[in-house]
């Protein structure tokens, strides 16, 4: 079996190979039926190699979720464009992010099969991916304050409020939608989210 490096950027691609393997396992059978032995076999490494980097499967899945959620969020943010203020980019990115999260295969699998994995990050504490998302929002809000497109305010509080809002839409939207009714389907509620964010952020 091929050795895997764990420290710094030198181990990045190898770590990604392990995260890819755990993603494939979770998509196939869910988290509870996945074992470190399954991941090691799929990644082509030994179990002891995994234990040197991740003490248990939950930690490994946590790193996977962080990687996947940050990738979704960064892809959702539109690139700067002439004539487009920062507020528009924030709103567009958050709405697109909610839609992308809800369609993400890993997110759907966890919500459908292992939803208890998400509960600590909803009820008890912030996770690494939430901290990273807050960092992205904080940077964007500061840009919006500087160009005048975002209502002045306490940046960190605004970022946390935005994350609370989009997190609730991401996790709970399907409890409120009626996909057979165009006035109450997902697209209609995402339109309401857009209005909510625009009014919250407009100076």
TrEMBL record:
Domain HTH tetR-type: 12-72
Parts of the chain that traverse the membrane: none
SUPFAM superfamilies documented for this protein: Homeodomain-like (SSF46689)
Taxonomy, superkingdom: Bacteria
Binding region for DNA: 35-54
Keywords: DNA-binding
InterPro entries: Homeodomain-like_sf, HTH-type_TetR-like_transc_reg, HTH_TetR
Keyword DNA-binding: yes
Signal peptide: none
Protein name: TetR/AcrR family transcriptional regulator
UniProt source species: Streptomyces gilvifuscus
Source organism phylogeny: Bacteria, Bacillati, Actinomycetota, Actinomycetes, Kitasatosporales
């Amino acid at each position: 079996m091929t050795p895997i490096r764990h420290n710094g950027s030198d181990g990045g691609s190898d770590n990604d190979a392990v995260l890819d393997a755990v993603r494939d396992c979770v998509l196939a059978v869910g988290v509870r039926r996945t074992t470190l032995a399954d991941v090691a076999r799929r990644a082509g490494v030994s179990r002891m190699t995994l234990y040197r980097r991740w003490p248990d499967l939950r930690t490994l899945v946590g790193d996977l979720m962080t990687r996947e959620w940050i990738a979704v969020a960064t892809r959702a943010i539109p690139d700067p464009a002439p004539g487009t203020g920062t507020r528009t980019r924030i709103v567009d990115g958050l709405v697109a992010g909610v839609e992308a999260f809800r369609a993400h295969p890993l997110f759907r699998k966890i919500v459908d099969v292992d939803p208890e994995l998400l509960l600590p990050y909803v009820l008890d504490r912030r996770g690494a991916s939430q901290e990273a998302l807050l960092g992205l929002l904080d940077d964007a809000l500061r840009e919006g304050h500087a160009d005048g497109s975002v209502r002045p305010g306490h940046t960190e509080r605004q970022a946390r409020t935005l994350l609370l809002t989009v997190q609730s839409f991401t996790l709970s939207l399907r409890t409120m939608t009626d996909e057979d009714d165009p006035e109450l389907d997902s697209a209609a509620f995402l339109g309401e989210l857009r209005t909510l964010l625009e009014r919250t952020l407009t100076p």
